[in-house]
């Protein structure tokens, strides 16, 4: 499961669909509707917010907005109807780590899509996140 800090516009079609599916799963996890994934590190930042369901719903709406811009038909009725206006802090180090990680994935999976973003040195975050100074988060699982 990868819940990107990055704006979903950077994801190739395969990545955007995967993000949608994984975040719908995360929503189920946060609602207590699954047995697994309850302690997944990607969910820590949502679990720290008093209205974690509202935050994950807002995150899903950001993905759905990007899907709409691309002409995709994501089923928005699957998003919890919460109407919270929240913003989560995320570190610049985490954002930049994910930017490099996505670049590596796209180099192998969709190099043509990757070329769209070659000149970007300061990527936009998903609208849910406010970027603050800091390092890569301790919950991030990094390869050795």
Description:
This protein has helices spanning 13-31, 44-47, 52-70, 92-109, 111-115, and strands at 88-91, 129-132. The chain is mostly helical and 144 residues long. The chain has one domain. The longest helix is centred in the first third of the chain and has 19 residues, at 13-31.
Overall pLDDT confidence = 93
Could you tell me the number of beta strands?
Answer: 2
The whole-angstrom Rg is 15 Å
Task: Give the strand order, joined by hyphens, for the main sheet.
Answer: 1-2
Individual helix count: 5
Q: SSE order, as H and E? A: HHHEHHE
Category from helices, strands and their pairing: mainly alpha
Largest β sheet strand count, sense and barrel closure: 2 strands, parallel
Structural shape: globular
Question: What is the terminal-to-terminal distance?
Answer: 19 Å
Pick out the low-confidence regions.
Answer: none
How many structural domains? 1
What helical percentage do the residues reach? Answer: 40-55%
Strand content: 5-15%
């Amino acid at each position: 499961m990868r819940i990107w800090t990055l704006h979903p516009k950077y994801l190739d079609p395969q990545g955007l669909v995967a993000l949608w599916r994984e975040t719908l799963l995360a929503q189920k996890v946060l609602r207590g509707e699954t047995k697994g994934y309850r302690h997944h590190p990607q969910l820590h930042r949502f679990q720290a917010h008093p209205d974690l369901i509202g935050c994950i719903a807002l995150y899903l709406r950001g993905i759905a907005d990007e899907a709409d811009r691309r002409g995709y038909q994501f089923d928005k009725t699957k998003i919890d109807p919460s109407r919270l206006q929240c913003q989560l802090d995320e570190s610049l180090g985490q954002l930049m780590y994910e930017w490099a990680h996505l670049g590596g994935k796209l180099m192998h999976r969709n190099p043509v899509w990757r070329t769209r973003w070659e000149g970007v040195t300061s990527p936009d975050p998903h609208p849910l996140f406010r970027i603050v100074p800091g390092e890569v988060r301790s919950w991030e699982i990094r390869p050795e």
